[in-house]
Amino acid sequence: MKAVVFDFDGLIIDTEIALYEAFRKLLKFEASEFPIADYATYIGTDSKDLYDFIVEKTNGTMTLEEVIEKSSLLHKDNLKNPVARDGVEDYLRKAKSLGMKIGLASSSDRKWVTYFLQELNLLEYFDIIQTKDDVEKVKPDPALYLNVINYFGIDPSEAIAFEDSANGSKAAVAAGLKCVIVPNKITETLSFENSHLKLTSMKEKEFTDVVKEIESLYVS
User: Fold this and answer.
1) Tell me, what DSSP letter sits at residue 5?
2) 20 to 30 A from 128, CA-CA: which of 34, 138, 160, 185?
3) How far apart are alpha carbons 157 and 93 in whole angstroms?
4) What's the CATH code of the domain at 136?
5) pLDDT tens across 21-53, in order?
6) Stretch 143-159: mean pLDDT
7) Could you say which of 9, 14, 141, 164 is catalytic?
8) Is 9 a catalytic residue?
9) pLDDT value at position 26?
């Protein structure tokens, strides 16, 4: 393995639960009225369908613009003290020490991603960052991953993707990478049919053990 490619939202930092709580507060819904399992299917791809879903939940009391504006303020408030998920920096540090290339592939915009990476002091680990600003189609389309792989000049089989969502996993596998799933509170209910390994968190296994396990999949 020569490279690792990380997703951002929900994997490096749990922005997903923060956004879910923002929408729930906006809608004044109890958790039972806004099941995580329904919400989770919109994670890891373009936000248009998600916002259309939320607008529908308002029963005509809010426009799309109002939903975007109000939920954004609530979301940012929930993330005013960002914390990386368990084990993330350990994995990045170990990958760097092993001389592996490190990329990031996110369906969010670059400003959002780089802001939080700077806040978490993680930006310096990444050799390339690809976001929705760099492609015509985001996940589950493989374009983001293919851009990273092409930049590195390696075969997709020489890279491991780390994802938290079904859409992200589909994108990584479609690009030819092996995919490790590290779900969060929102995506843990999803089915990850095409992934190659699933962890509860990056604290569950050492990075080198994960690499060995993925490499063993290529041994006939």
Assistant:
1) E
2) 185
3) 22
4) 3.40.50.1000
5) 999 999 998 888 888 888 888 877 777 888 998
6) 98
7) 9
8) yes
9) 92
For 91, the domain range is 3-14+85-216
- Longest CA–CA span in the chain (Å) reads 58
Kindly state whether residues 100 and 120 are assigned to the same domain.
Answer: yes
Question: Could you count the other beta carbons within 10 Å of the beta carbon of residue 93?
Answer: 13
Six-digit token pair at 170?
């589909």
Catalytic residue among 7, 14, 141, 164: 7
DSSP per residue, 84-135 = BPTTHHHHHHHHHHTT-EEEEE-SS-HHHHHHHHHHTT-GGG-SEEE-GGG-
Higher pLDDT, 68 or 190: 68
The number of domains in the chain is: 2
Q: How far apart are CA 128 and CA 114, in angstroms?
A: 11
- 200: how many CB neighbours lie within 10 A of its CB? 11
pTM of the model: 0.89
